[in-house]
Amino acid sequence: MAQEEKGWDTSYEWKIILLLSITFGLVGLDRFILPIILQSPNSTMAADLGLSPADGGAMAGYLGMAWGVSAFVMGYLADKVGRRVVLAPAILVFSLMSAFSGMAGSVVGLVFVRVIMGIAEGPVASTGVAVAVEASKPERRGLNNGVFQCMISLFGLALGPIIATRLLDSHSWHAVFMLVALPGVVMAVLMWLVVREPAKRADTGHGGGKVLGMFGHRNAKVAPLTLICAMGGIFVIAALLTAYLTAPVGAGLGLDPITAGNVFSAVGVGGAIGQFAMPAISDYIGRKLSTLASYILAAISLYFFTQAGPESISTLWTLLFFASLFNFAALAILAGPVAAEAAPPGMLASMAGFVIFAGEFVGGGISPIIAGGIAGKYGLKAALYFAACGLVLGFFVALFLKETAPRKLKA
Fold this sequence. Notes:
globular; 15 helices; mainly alpha; 81% helix; Growth Hormone, Chain: A; two-stranded antiparallel sheet; single chain
């Protein structure tokens, strides 16, 4: 057995972070592969089910809101009854729902399946944060949370389009959904076998704390509010970027679909690096400074992206890369180590779940709706300005964060 130090096992720490990373990557793949399949010229899904782009957007919104509510409710349940009994079944269910997406015969059926998927994916985020924090040496909380959280961007936004389009070359859209579901079934079994429950139930919430007791720490109130701004930026960009890139010059940049797809890849690559790197850096320079820097750099990068023309694709890609890197960085820091370090004893998964709920429900659900209205009235660029202004607002809210990084507190 690896040497234990102050109650943690280094071997278990790396093992569980690896499993969480693969699992959260599968969450991203299952979540983001739907719009890729819908828009692919090699797929007949939209025609078969009579789906419009608006239907695809609505399903993404329903899934996001279900994810947010479930992250909190199931995170609280994980604090009450244990990690494995929540996490392993959730992984199994979202994997099955991915397979069932390939069996859907109507829009209503597909919406139902995707909502259930959101309910199952939510606890992977909140309970996953709890499991990662409990397994980690305190000085590595940011690093470990960044490693597993970045996989949702890497698998879902960077590798997802490649995986989906390659599979669609030789398989029907029905088969693609089923194929991407298979690894999740394996991960559910492994999680059940590997995940350890907290060593001391009394200290980690077998009986749980009162829900209102979560909000004693200042960050428990500030983190949900500022995370809304980070999530709003991400989901507004995800919802409207393709339209902005491909709309005729004047309304957008007038890029062809292939070039637009290449530019869009910056979101996945930048997001994955940001979710990994900045939480790790926050272990050394602090959560607050890292979050503030992420917000302001994301806003600046996004603003200059809106000012760039279609003449230089490399400039567009680079600016979008940095906008995504720092936007996703703020998300990862707030939903991971900041939320965990604000939680009272016994409410770790609940606290992470509540922070994620606020970000997903408002930032991921309501913000794109508002941005869509702005785009319809004032144009697509105005909607991106709305996202940039949200990031600036997130900076000012984050000024009220209290520093919690263990290394900074020891200094």
